[in-house]
Amino acid sequence: MQIEDAVPRVGALVTGVDVRSLTENDWKQLYQTWLDRHVLIVRGQKLTKPEFLEYSARFGRLKPHRVKKTHDPEHPEITLMGVTSGNSGSDKLVLDRGQGWHTDSPWDVEICKATQLYGLEIPSYGGDTLFASMHAAYDALSEQLKTKIATLKVAFGYGGRARTGIERLDPEDQKMPPAIHDMVRVHPETGRKSLYVNPTHVLSIVGMPEEEGDRLLAELYWYMLQPNAEYRHKWQAGDIVIWDNRCTVHSAAGGQPADQRRVHWRTTIMQ
Ligand code: SIN
To answer: Which of 20, 100, 123, 246 gives 256 a disulfide partner, CB atoms 3.0 to 4.6 angstroms apart?
Structure first.
């Protein structure tokens, strides 16, 4: 098994291993590398859905995504991304974009530990995924700003204030109340602090007048992308990429040809 850094401060690229037959030592090394690097890319895998589920479950409990119409019919813990439903060629299943910086499921009361994607069909260009370390974002803040935000709480909602894409949810799920989380999170496994805000899902800073809150958020968003702490993943079919939602943000870069498929299986992994 070979492991190399993707960029200096985030991401690790793993080759020469089959995740279906990992030794216990390989697994320990992979998991520790993931904690250290936040985004783990394993290349060249050939997995069935049960095998993808089994590997994903090594990281934590699997939770079916709130957008129920994207669930794989036999395995609801797998979200199908970029697959046509079969009824109509234009009926693309949702969650096939993820454009705009965000972390996954902050609108859930329970913080989502990780998301894992398995690349099946990759367009000839475009369709990359971007990642950034939110430890690096936090570390870059001035001491004054760190003190100011230390005890703040943030309200998150599906689709953010504009409720973008809310129609993807079943009617009962559209009424879910906002989830409230600490703006500064201590990673439960590494003890490192990170900034937990993103421009896609934040509704407000709890207890702060809207205008003041928006000014502070705008200031914080400037810190999200730090030198050598941002990684652009160019997909190959057979890649598995898992990211730590507790300390990263990501965005689908888009830009792929409209007539080419971009298909992934996705799992949502909890503590
Ligand atoms: C996501 O935002 O969860 C998906 C990112 C991607 O499709 O590149």
So the answer is: 123
